[in-house]
Write a structure and sequence with these properties.
The protein is α/β, with parallel strands linked by helices. It has a single domain, classed as 3-Layer(aba) Sandwich (Dihydrofolate Reductase, subunit A), CATH 3.40.430. 23% of the residues lie in helices and 19% in strands. The chain is built from 7 helices and 10 strands. β3, α4 and β4 form a beta-alpha-beta unit. The N and C termini lie far apart (40 Å).
Length: 273
């Protein structure tokens, strides 16, 4: 298993590339820094690249909470830092209304250097109250995607999309990309991530596994079952040691995305148009 070393030097370089400056090439990177670039370098590409990454933290037995709903300490410290790095590299972070109501997450960048992403809540039936922390906190722009005619506070942007059983993930991504939000983090919950995965819209799926056994409780990711193993998704997967957690970095090739491969060339060779 490959060990990751996100030094201040490598993180500063990643943020610089994220902002459109410099390149990731450096002959003096250590092996641990190279592993960090393997994880985060592809996600720091230019805004035209269109990255959509799902992230989930779970136990060894695939749970994201106990039966009573306790999910606070599923991920270890390094798993949480990893999540904050993903937020810092994203234009927008997306969650479903169930996650918003149950966890009331802040969705901000606090454990690493970086800017807060736009916060997006998928709330088809308008269940989320206006006094929830996500909509009261103005440290980052907030978007609610819904299918009902429900007014929101003036500082909250509303996107209204049609809905049958669930709002179309493709329409959600299209609406966000029209607003210049091209690096999208699908943070939760498991149902929301599964919807984007089954719609063939994820470019990456990060599964951070913490060394604990819960025994029962909600599963991290539940997709439509297959009858035969030959029908199962088999993404290209790299495994990294984060410290407290083990990261499975799964890569997909969605039909709708035009992804530029890692590593990035030096700046002199980038963007000739």
């Amino acid at each position: 298993m490959q060990d990751v070393d996100v030094t201040p030097k490598v993180w500063d370089r990643i943020l610089s590339v994220r902002a459109g400056h410099g390149c990731l090439c450096d002959p003096d990177w250590s092996e641990g820094e190279k592993q960090a670039l393997s994880i985060y370098g592809a996600l720091a590409q230019p805004k035209s690249s269109g990255q959509v990454i799902g992230q989930i933290g779970q136990s060894l037995d695939g749970r994201i909470a106990t039966v009573s709903g306790d999910a606070k300490d599923i991920s270890g410290k390094d798993g949480l830092v990893h999540l904050h790095r993903l937020r810092a590299l994203s234009d927008a972070v997306v969650i479903g209304v169930k996650t918003a109501l149950h966890d009331n997450p802040r969705l901000t960048v606090r454990m690493v250097e970086g800017e807060n992403p736009v916060r997006v809540i998928i709330d088809p039936n308008g269940r989320m109250p206006d006094d929830i922390g996500l909509m009261q906190d103005r440290s980052a722009h907030c978007i609610v995607i819904q299918s009902v005619d429900k007014a929101r506070p003036d500082h909250v942007e509303v996107i209204t999309l049609p809905c049958t059983h669930w709002i179309s993930p493709a329409q959600i991504l299209n609406a966000l990309q029209q607003r210049g939000l091209n690096r999208i983090l699908i943070e939760g919950g498991g149902i929301t991530i599964a919807k984007f995965l089954e719609a063939n819209l994820l470019t990456h799926l990060h599964v951070a596994v913490a060394p604990l056994l819960i025994g029962a409780g909600p599963q991290g990711l539940t997709t439509s079952p297959v009858e035969r193993l030959s029908q199962a998704l088999r993404p290209r997967t790299d495994v990294y040691g984060l410290g407290s957690d083990v990261l499975f970095d799964c890569t997909f090739e969605p039909a709708s995305a035009q992804i530029k491969p890692y590593p990035l060339p030096c700046r002199a060779a980038v963007h000739t148009n």
